[in-house]
Every structure is written in C-alpha cells, then in structure tokens.
Give the backbone structure.
Amino acid sequence: MGGDGLQFDSGVSQQVEAVYTAPDVVEQRRIVRVALALRPGDRVLDVGVGPGLLAAEMAPEVGPSGRICGIDVSDSMLAIARTRADVPDGPRIELEVGSATSIPHPAESFDVVVSTQVFEYVDDVLGGLDEVRRVLRPAGRVVLLDTDWDSVVWRSSDDARMGRVLTAFEQHLADPHLPRRLGDVLAKAGFTLTHLQVVPMLNSGYDTHTLSAGLIDIIAAFVPGRAGVTEEEARAWAGDLRALGSSYFFSLNRYLFVASAL
Ligand SMILES: C[S@@+](CC[C@H](N)C(=O)[O-])C[C@H]1O[C@@H](n2cnc3c(N)ncnc32)[C@H](O)[C@@H]1O
C-alpha cells in the first residue's frame, strides 16, 4: 500500500465493511464468485481479504474438504474478518497478516488465488503477481478485480470541484488506473488471460446503502489537504451530492481478470 494512501485503521475498516454490505457490492461479489467457479475441495487464498465478506461466501462453495485462507496487511481488517471465520458447511477460514508481495504460504499451496480491489493499492504489482504464481499449483488460476477511476461518472452541481475532489482521492491508491495495464503485468508474471469483463457499479437516486453513498464520507475525510482541496470544500462537495436526491447519479467500472498459471 502506498505510504501516503488510505490507511485501513479501525475507523476506515468499519466504514469499508458497512459499504461492502450494500446490495450493489453484494452483487459485485456474486459476479466475482461466478468467475471463480469454485468446486468442493478447492484450496483458495484471498489476498487482501479485508472484512472477510467474500471469504465467508466462498467457504460453503469449497465445503468442509476445501480450504479458505486470507491475508491482509491491516490488523483492523483482519479483526473484522475473524468475526466471520466460522461458516456453516465450510472450512474454518484461516486468517493471518501478510502482504501481496510476500505471501506467507509455501509454493503450490492453492488451486485459486482471488484478490479484489487490492492490487490497485500495491506499489510492486509484478512482484505481487510473481508471489501469486509461486503459491498457485501449476494450471491454478487467479481472479483479480480492480477499478479504473477514469471511468467515474458522478453528477454534481459543481463539476470543477468534483474534478478536484476525484483528483485528490486518486492519491488513496498506488495506481488508480491499474486495469488498463494489468493484462500486460499478468503476462509478464507468466499468466495466460482466460476471461476479462467489466463490472459496472451504478447508483441512480441517492440511497445511503450503496457503494457511492458510503464512499462519500471516506472521500470527504481523505481529500482535505490534497490537490488543493480544503475541509470546507470537501464538506460542501459531500452536502451537494446528498442534496441531489432523486437526481443523484453515479457510475464506475471495475475490471475482472481471470488468468491461468500455465
Ligand atoms: C478496498 S479493501 C478490499 C477488501 C476485500 N478484498 C474486498 O474486496 O472486500 C483493500 C484491502 O487491501 C488490503 N491491502 C492493501 N495493500 C495490501 C497488500 N500489499 N497486501 C495485502 N493486502 C493489502 C487493505 O488492508 C484492505 O483490507
């Protein structure tokens, strides 16, 4: 994670968990799980497991004979994920501190590695994918999902201010435009791309229990002092969006990559 980027401390981790229970993010995970196509007995590593929502959903799919491991650099996220470690009809989820660029597991330990909205935080993406390849069995597969922040369409009554806020928020990631180069990095790490799709997020009409409404507080807290955005401006930006009511509009693309370690 970039040193000056978003810190997943206790407060931010709880905010992220709340946002990720919103129906549009639940649907995003369903799409990821379709791409994962897990089978009973599969051994899966979730890199940057976060609050453990995806791990808990995968556990019944691999069943008691499977294995679900999660690593994360954030103790706060792991503490939240631990509350989900016991899943009916699945293995107990194994959680530990670890980074994408130094995965604390032996070579060829997993059939599948998944990592959603994590590599965009990683400075050394190739180093991380080399690690993913090391821990995958031959012909194992990796499933990655990342955002390109150039794809955002967010209605505002002040487009210049929206532009400044989004420019400042790009600093929360090591690479806010990772998807456009991720195919090349996967190839360099020795993976063969087998599937690529866009996962659009769309919020029309202001609703507190959506991805973008949940992001407003996280963004408003992060941007002051960056790219010339002041606290007052961030507050005004957030208030403006909430006041749009039924005219509120937000759209953003995630990109889903499935690749094989052939
Ligand atoms: C936006 S959250 C996504 C969490 C989870 N993958 C999900 O989709 O619900 C990003 C997560 O990546 C973790 N993270 C950031 N850099 C990491 C790294 N180098 N290695 C492992 N995890 C990392 C953060 O601590 C955080 O939990």
